[in-house]
Amino acid sequence: MSLAEGILDPSKKTTGDMFIGWAPAPKVDRRFLLGALPLAFAGTSGASWLIAKNLDDPGAGAWLTNTTHSVTGVLTHHPYPMIRFADTNAPFGLRTVLIVAIGKCTSALEWRDRAAEAVTASGVLIQRKDHQMLEVPPFAQEWLASVDGPVDTALAAPTIESLGSARLAGTIMDSKCFFGVMRPGRGKTHKACASLCIRGGIPPSFWVRSRDGREQIMLMTDAAGDPMPKDILPLVADPVEAEGEIVRVGDLIQFRADTSAYRRI
């Protein structure tokens, strides 16, 4: 006999239980739920901890939006916008701060007629360990001021030292997000954002990690030391390898290789 038949004919007994939404749950169901809920909570908590434990460390990046930071030094645009200033605590007696615009429009910065002069730049500091970047408005009068006095030639044209050729495996990042604007600012999930940033003039970086977990972040240029061309964009955020020249310019390490030298791995 079906449950429907029992409902239509009350004289007949039904063979199944009828669910009533507003009625109290049966004792057996209550006992099951009271026993299962703690186990379910412990299981989901343990799974969450295990997933979080196995995620990559996003790195010690910071985007210090709560204050304005000022840098006084020599402005240059090659291969990318940057300011160099003397710093006795830095490894080579100077420090380089890359310059990027708010958003993804660094290539639109109005400042090229101010290159190779002493200036003070003001903006938001982005940093990852020893790597620093200043985020500024697009119009020069809003962030750039001239400084009286001679230009230090050691800052305008620092020593260039070749550290030799090497075949390196790593990932191409946009420096802005990777230094601290996004955490983590890497991987496949960041590919679209990184491509837009690099297309907009933000310097690309080559992130290389050794087997013991140490990281090396190198500014990417073409083989001649000029800005990386836009045909590198399809390889952004993918694991790649390339043979190129490692060059030290002041305190910055560059990896110089043409786009044709890179291949996915």
Keywords:
5 helices, OB fold (Dihydrolipoamide Acetyltransferase, E2P), five-stranded mixed barrel, 12 strands, 36% strand, 2 domains, alpha+beta, five-stranded mixed β-barrel, 265 residues
In short:
The protein has 265 residues and is an alpha+beta fold. It folds into two domains: 96 residues, OB fold (Dihydrolipoamide Acetyltransferase, E2P) (Beta Barrel); 105 residues, OB fold (Dihydrolipoamide Acetyltransferase, E2P), CATH 2.40.50. It is built from five helices and twelve strands.
- CATH class category name of the largest domain: Mainly Beta
Q: Helix and strand string, N-terminal first? A: HHEEEEEEHEHHEEEEE
Find the structural class using helix and strand composition: alpha+beta
Task: Characterize the largest beta sheet: strand count, sense, and whether it forms a barrel.
Answer: 5 strands, mixed, barrel
* Number of structurally distinct domains: 2
Give the SSE layout:
Elements: H1 3-8, H2 27-53, E1 61-76, E2 82-86, E3 94-101, E4 118-128, E5 131-136, E6 144-146, H3 153-156, E7 160-174, H4 175-181, H5 191-199, E8 204-209, E9 215-221, E10 239-249, E11 252-256, E12 262-264
Parallel strand pairs: 3-5, 9-11
Antiparallel strand pairs: 1-2, 1-4, 2-3, 4-5, 4-6, 7-8, 7-10, 8-9, 10-11, 10-12
